């Protein structure tokens, strides 16, 4: 494809010919190849502009930059924002795949992954093949392609959308993280539907957002980039999130003003099963059972139904879809012998932890045990808050390691203890996560609910830049095997 065609729709100035055939779009000089265009991104650690000449020496024929760059032997195209340019160029390079599918974007602090799986489950029941891009990876049919980020770089997003369209998907659901929106990873196309789940303080500090306002403003970007916005009006932030929206708006929630409403929530439980039932009001009027526990599952299900309504699904598709949905690492039950319940959950901040613990408390466990740690090189406030929440809500907190990254695990645990000490909650520190899980299982009593919080779907533990394999399902199976219980 010609460079000038890839640049269509962008404002730019070029210092050479744009009548150039472009073989690929590259934003890492180490991957540059003959005939490619190199896009210089300003990152958290490096400035891609510094590597432009290196990319040209490896064969790049054009360099897309947002400030002056020293390059000889290639056309230089100056744009205002290279991340936005990468998105526009990628959409063109992959033939605007968003026009060949209906793309749904989800934003919100919590519930994106779960809701995306619910949408997929309902749509696939209706015969609409649905691709997913999100925290668990990119899902196309039975394949799960692992990705580094919840919302990958725009080039990867467009490439995946192309693949989905070519493989017969009628819909794609993208988790649009606030950082993904900020960094234009989902720019360059219009979403059919944008969904807002909820908003609470998170992702502030470190390499993430500068302030709560910036975090909220990034989420709001989605509603200037979709045809229809669907929002949870029980969350007071919905007005701020939709400020300046350019789309039509629809609402869901328990509030009587919501267009799609839930009522009559009832918890469902029997040995080895926790779920929730509720009734729909508004455009649909029937009851549904969701095979994931708790009040927040009602919100996620309601959001999924509100989206799927626009795909013409039937009552049966909704019932069956929500009945069959399973999300790896989201309140995921792990089979154990004995009369206690063991769950793996991705809750890795205070809001999710509060939600999951309050939710599980409603199922009246003998004891509620929460095993958790906290990530290194992320906001420290998260640790204090998690300690405080677990100390307040769990009968026993088992404090251990999560992804310590480049920090010392004991420093992270000390921060968690600061929060725990604000409560009179009982706790024990076992820094080795496998040992901590074993402790929980060996000391489980009848009727206990044990939640292994934080790792969710992840199958690794990140320590000092190395990802060591750790899948909590396997850890549990190994413990049972060692103890002759499997
Ligand atoms: C802080 C941040 O957002 N970092 C992301 C970013 O990497 P970076 O900014 O560090 O890149 P960099 O190393 O500074 O390099 C800048 C540029 O120079 C280029 N370069 C660099 C070296 C070289 O020799 N040649 C070269 O060309 C790089 O390829 C890059 O284009 O670009 C990478 C590729 O797109 C991302 O994988 C990476 O996400 C990291 C892993 C990350 O942790 N991001 C978090 C903050 C994040 O994005 N989180 C959100 C929200 C998650 C949630 O909701 O829970 C997400 O969507 O994942
Ligand atoms: N609607 C919700 N409101 C509050 N908490 C929720 C909600 N849905 C799920 N949770 C809790 O948050 C955890 C993460 O849920 P999920 O992965 O669906 O959210 P997410 O928005 O994708 O989160 P993240 O950005 O952290 O990946 C769940 O395991 C559950 O404990």
Automatic annotation (TrEMBL):
Its main location: cytoplasm. The keyword Ligase applies. Residues 23-91 form the Mur ligase N-terminal catalytic domain. GO terms for molecular function: UDP-N-acetylmuramoylalanyl-D-glutamate-2,6-diaminopimelate ligase activity. UDP-N-acetyl-alpha-D-muramoyl-L-alanyl-D-glutamate binds at residues 29, 149-151, 177, 185. SUPFAM superfamilies: MurD-like peptide ligases, catalytic domain, MurD-like peptide ligases, peptide-binding domain, MurE/MurF N-terminal domain. It is an enzyme of class 6 (ligase). Residues 329-456 form the Mur ligase C-terminal domain. ATP binds at residues 108-114. The modification N6-carboxylysine is found at residue 219. Keywords: ATP-binding, Cell cycle, Cell division, Cell shape, Cell wall biogenesis/degradation, Cytoplasm, Ligase, Magnesium, Nucleotide-binding, Peptidoglycan synthesis. InterPro entries: Folylpolyglutamate_synth_CS, Mur-like_cat_sf, Mur_ligase_C, Mur_ligase_C_dom_sf, Mur_ligase_cen, Mur_ligase_N, MurE/MurF_N, UDP-N-AcMur-Glu-dNH2Pim_ligase. Residues 107-308 form the Mur ligase central domain. Pathway: Cell wall biogenesis; peptidoglycan biosynthesis. Its EC number is 6.3.2.-. Carboxylation is probably crucial for Mg(2+) binding and, consequently, for the gamma-phosphate positioning of ATP. It comes from the Bacteria. Catalyzes the addition of an amino acid to the nucleotide precursor UDP-N-acetylmuramoyl-L-alanyl-D-glutamate (UMAG) in the biosynthesis of bacterial cell-wall peptidoglycan. PANTHER family: MUR LIGASE FAMILY MEMBER, UDP-N-ACETYLMURAMOYL-L-ALANYL-D-GLUTAMATE--2,6-DIAMINOPIMELATE LIGASE MURE HOMOLOG, CHLOROPLASTIC. Belongs to the MurCDEF family. MurE subfamily. NCBIfam families: murE, PRK00139.1-4. This is UDP-N-acetylmuramyl-tripeptide synthetase. It comes from Anaeromassilibacillus senegalensis. The gene is murE.
